[in-house]
Amino acid sequence: MNKNLCVVGLGYIGLPTAAMFAKSNWNVVGVDVNPVAVEKLNQGEIHIEEVGLGELVKEVVKEGNLEAKLEPTYADCFIIAVPTPHNEDHTAKLDYVIEATKSILPYLKEDDTVIVESTIPPRTINDIVAPIIEEQGWNVGENLFLAHCPERVLPGRILIELVENTRIVGGINQKSAEQAAEIYRSFVKGEILITSAVSAEMSKLMENTYRDVNIALANELAKVSEKLGIDALEVIQLANHHPRVNLHLPGPGVGGHCLAVDPYFIIEKAPEQAVLISNARVINNSMPSFVIDQVKKLLPQKASKLAVLGLTYKGNIDDVRESPAMDIVNLLRTEGYNISVHDPHVQPHQVEFELSSFEDAIGDAECILILTDHHEFKTLDETKVVKLMKYPNVLDTRNCVQFSNEQIKYYNYSNLFEISSQKEVIMK
Question: CB of 238 within 8 A of CB of 246?
């Protein structure tokens, strides 16, 4: 089997995927429109944060198995791994997938395989990608093969899960699926499941929708518990002792390029039928406002300094895409709150406001608002918290911190109902 691969899109999925193929002795060309990313990659450096990726990229670039370009090149296999954000009406924005598909057309040759890894609405392969290729005279499924192989990895474990996880390979026909599956077998140790393109598209969306709906249930429980004076975290712990119950934990909302986006691709195609999915999106999208409501009770005076810790949508990564923490910060800024923001994983160019050190952020603050469960926040220096803050109050929306110092007043989803009773104490 020939081993020349062109990966279009060098983001959080495309770059690790390109690196893994390169490690498996493929000749890989990675393509991206970002000249900075291309330049850094050719120097053996990376422009994103992912455990182990920097070392792997440095290795395969040095060995000559991976290089980056601004334009595609001839290859035996093309993988499209570009973003699929949503429009303002939450419909899928497929411009990048369409542009990436068109960009490889001049380089296609007989028996090539085209694989779309980007998350896409059902029937995108059949109704959009295949016609673009067929317009160039190709008989898709016969002399050129087309498949959808959605990524299903966890940030922070991408290099591990690319190898170990089960992969779903959906072809536009059986031969396409088999061709694509053989390509992934070069490094994937997990089971490879062959299906149709539309089933692969839908299965990916349902994986993330399942999680989104379950998180919505936990978030709604948190709201109900706050209203009724109930410890939501204890309820979840007790309920999960049932052998067939596995409630998720509540949080400040749902973010990232998958959970906060993918359900809309199903809603778009069947809005009247996707009632539960739609309601889950509404609930999860409401959580930033719910967090703001708790902040208002803790800090009725907007001039009071609030230290915000965390901007990414999950811990120990640098990804702020669709992050509810970003929504919360923007709401706080819009409402005129005096905030100072710290996130050790986020670079200044990723945000439109100033970032502070931990000490500067909490200095003279009347409350810490934890929005991301970074490791750094799970072991906060209690001495600094008490010494530097004006009032040592902590609102932890990630339920990730434990304090032993009784001077620190700590709130999470177990005791939100206590905030109102403390308002007068805090204001003194």
Answer: no
Q: Is the dihedral of CA 314, 317, 323, 328 positive or negative?
A: positive
Does 4-190 carry CATH code 3.40.50.1820?
no
| 414/393 Cα distance (integer angstroms) | 15
DSSP label at residue 46: -
CATH number, domain 205-282: 1.10.1040.10
Q: 426 with 389: CB under 8 angstroms?
A: no
Contact partners, residue 160, CB within 8 Å, separation at least 6: none
pLDDT digit string, tens, across residues 105-150: 999 999 999 999 999 999 999 999 999 999 999 999 999 999 999 9
Contact 63, 26 (CB under 8 A): no
Catalytic residue numbers?
Answer: 204, 258
For residue 319, give both structure tokens. Answer: 């990804």
Cα 47 to its chain centre, rounded Å, is 16
Residue-wise pLDDT for 254-298, tens only, equals: 998 888 899 999 999 999 999 999 999 999 999 999 999 999 999
Superfamily name with CATH number, domain 286-427? NAD(P)-binding Rossmann-like Domain (3.40.50.720)
Longest CA–CA separation in the chain, Å: 76
Dihedral sign for Cα atoms in the order 386, 390, 392, 398: negative
Question: Does the model's pTM come out above 0.90?
Answer: no
- Give the residue extent of every domain in the chain: 4-190, 205-282, 286-427
How many angstroms separate the CA atoms of 96 and 81, rounded?
9
| CA–CA separation, 282 and 290 (whole Å) | 12
Euclidean distance between CA atoms 231 and 411, whole angstroms = 11
pLDDT in tens, 92-114: 999 999 999 999 999 999 999 99
The Cα 124–Cα 377 span in angstroms is 41
Give the Å distances, CA to CA, from 222 to 168, 245, 416, 424.
35, 17, 9, 24
- What size, in residues, is the chain? 428
Could you give the angle at which helices 14-23 and 53-62 cross, rounded to 10 degrees? Answer: 50
Fold match between domain 205-282 and domain 286-427: no
CA-based angle 294:295:301, to the nearest 5? 130
Could you give the CA distance from residue 11 to residue 158 in angstroms, rounded to a whole number?
12
Average pLDDT over residues 23-32: 97
